[in-house]
Amino acid sequence: MPSLGVCLVISLLFNISPTRFRSFHASPVQFPSNSFIFCTLRNQAIFGMAFHIPTLRNVVRLGKCIPTKCSVNIQSVRHLNLLEYQSKTLLEKYNVTVQKFIVADKIDDTNCLSAKLKAGEYVVKAQILAGGRGLGVFDSGFKGGVHLTKDPVKARNLVGEMLNRRLITKQTPKDGIPVNHVMVAESVDILRETYLCILMDREYNGPVIIASPAGGMDIEDVAHKTPELIKTLPVDIFEGVTDAMANDLAEFLLFKGDLKKKAAQEIKHLWEMFLKVDAVQVEINPFVETPQGQVVSVDAKIGFDDNAKFRQQEIFSMEDTTECDPREVEANKYNLNYIGMDGNIGCLVNGAGLAMATMDIIQLYGASPANFLDVGGTVQEQQVLQAFQILTSDKNVKAILVNVFGGIVNCATIASGIVGACKRIELKVPLIVRLEGTNVDAAKQILKDSGLPIQSASDLDDAAKKAVASI
């Protein structure tokens, strides 16, 4: 039996959150099949949840631990995305070479542009969280969210065309996304493009580096047509990216002489950032060689572990929520996972799988779901109230279907939350509730005693039929 001190250390370790680690085979240490560590790692592997690499190292060193069963609550999260200029700012912080740039939030920020940013050619980019900017169209009719020019005056005018307009691309809503920031950067003179990505990979049970000398294009196409141009290197979580590994990657990317040393150093800086910011992906495409003998990360896509928000507060404070559905933002404050849709039946469900099944069966019976809403496994009455407030804020919702299977969730808690929410917001649309599982009898009695016009359903099929019939 481990000492109290060891138990406390393990408890603290598993409260430390995470750079994503989807599975674990990094050590020959064997854990008892009912141990806390085994159960946690197994669940992390099955569900693709996050895991903090330094924590993992410590767990391996601790060896066998508490021989007790455990349950782990699995709940998805909304992922943080950064704008392009924010990613470049982060790269700069960790000594990764990027092109010089400025960010304009208002047209005056581009005054004296040639003095602020000395460049032979400027690239002007609207900053939104969507692809296809180059072929996008603004609500003013102006075409293109990415432009090149050698004239600083024209660059300033381009900023004026983009700021405070809505940019519409294939990846945005129909009315587009507001452009609150425009990045003006020096255009990089590219001699050769390569590809580099560090990410957590389920197949390799941890962090890997994927590299290709064929960069600047869709890496999936490269892998399909010329697989010999793809190199995948698993990274040992104890050693990290060694000099030998960095040099090997730089050589595979066809960097020569001094450029090989520079590329290797850039790769090590990228790995350091990957660890320090709790990233799950750092993709550089293209990772380029310039005629001036530089190695530059021209474009970056960085994915973060949202569970690490509590210790990456500086990074998460950079999130721009103006582009997000305000209902999603509000739901995220209460650990609710909400995605708005175009239907008319609001859904409140526990578990992503059950939520999707509920949406499917609503569609089967001829109606459409208004949303995806997963309340998770640790939901409390206050969260149920917030969920109802979010659902009823959608004017398209003509009925609400609650479908809860109580394993970890206490059905009585859900029922009390439903009653409290209905009374507080004076619900004006039909409410259909299907509850099953933990404390279901007590939950049904709570609903019955409330005196509210709540329609109970015996199963999901019955619930969907009643919801569709009520609209």
In words, what does this structure look like?
The chain is of the alpha+beta class and 471 residues long. The protein has 4 domains: 4-62, no CATH class; 100-186, ATP-grasp fold, A domain (Dna Ligase, domain 1, 2-Layer Sandwich); 192-316, D-amino Acid Aminotransferase, Chain A, domain 1 (2-Layer Sandwich); 325-469, 3-Layer(aba) Sandwich (Rossmann fold). 35% of the residues lie in helices and 20% in strands. It contains 16 helices and 19 strands. It has helices spanning 4-13, 36-47, 53-62, 84-93, 113-116, 152-162, 219-225, 243-252, 257-276, 313-316, 326-333, 352-364, 381-392, 411-425, 440-449, 460-469, and strands at 101-104, 122-126, 137-138, 146-149, 166-168, 177-178, 182-186, 192-201, 206-212, 231-234, 279-289, 295-297, 300-304, 337-340, 345-349, 371-374, 399-406, 431-437, 454-456. Strands 8, 9, 10, 11, 12 and 13 form a 6-stranded antiparallel sheet that branches. Helix 13 (381-392) packs across helix 14 (411-425). The chain is elongated, with a radius of gyration of 26 Å. It starts with a helix and ends with a helix. Mean pLDDT is 85; it is low at 1-50 and 62-76. Substrate binds at residues 350, 407-409. It catalyses: GTP + succinate + CoA = succinyl-CoA + GDP + phosphate. Mg(2+) binds at residues 285, 299.
